[in-house]
Amino acid sequence: MKRTVIFALALVVAGVAGFMLQRYLTPESDTDPRSTAIEAASSAAVGSTRPEFAMIDINGDMRNISDWEGQVILLNFWATWCPPCLREIPHFIEVQQQLESHGFQIVGIAVDDQDAVTEFVDEMSINYPIMAGEVEAIELSKKYGNSIGGLPYTAFIDRNGIITHTITGELSEERLISILRELGLSL
Asked: Which stretch of DSSP H or E encloses residue 155?
């Protein structure tokens, strides 16, 4: 009986700690001081050429970042168990639909189990390429500047293959529109 109570208490404490950490890592607004600190931690990649990579997408096709050469790319690292990640996806679906004919491509890299990702993508009718990997996806996010390993993590890549912005934490719709304007795209 004591073990069950201790185990249940440990689960509650772990859940609360995880929730509080996620709240801390997710800025409430673009003027939140945490936003600046988190962006500074991931800004080392800004100005550098995008790292090359190839991964198998959830449809079984090999995809390479160079598949979208010459386009503005929003590279988003996310997970099905990450609430701020899930809040971003409906905006991404809408923006992809509006801008795909203007040389814009969202690419999702799920730090998650392939089966969970495939099921989620089908449910949400995600209209951009998704790759899934666990350790491989984490390592790739680090190459794109995610030094703290936070999710969601987004890197913007311009038409010349240069990383222009990196965002750790939820990307607000306002910030997304602002960055896209800087990169020559408007909704």
From this structure: strand 153-157
Domain containing 139 — which CATH number? 3.40.30.10
Q: Is the dihedral of CA 99, 181, 120, 64 positive or negative?
A: positive
pLDDT at 21 exceeding the cut of 90: no
* Residue 37 exposure: Cα atoms within 13 Å on the Cβ side: 8
Report the candidate in 124, 132, 87, 88 with the shortest Cα–Cα distance to residue 108.
Answer: 132
Distance, in Å, from the CA atom of 168 to the CA atom of 148, rounded to the nearest integer, reads 9
Q: Provide the number of structural domains found in the chain.
A: 1
- Count of Cβ atoms closer than 10 Å to residue 6 Cβ: 10
Residue 187: inside a domain: no
Per-residue pLDDT, averaged over 110-121, amounts to 96
Domain that holds residue 81: 2-182
CB 93 within 8 A of CB 124: yes
**Do 137 and 131 touch, CB atoms closer than 8 A?**
yes
Cβ pair 114, 129 in contact under 8 A? no
Supply 63's token pair: 């995809």
Contacts 24+ apart (CB under 8 A), 138-143: 138/111, 140/51, 140/53, 140/55, 140/77, 140/109, 141/77, 141/109, 141/111, 143/45, 143/51, 143/53
pLDDT band at 143 (very low <50, low <70, confident <90, very high): very high
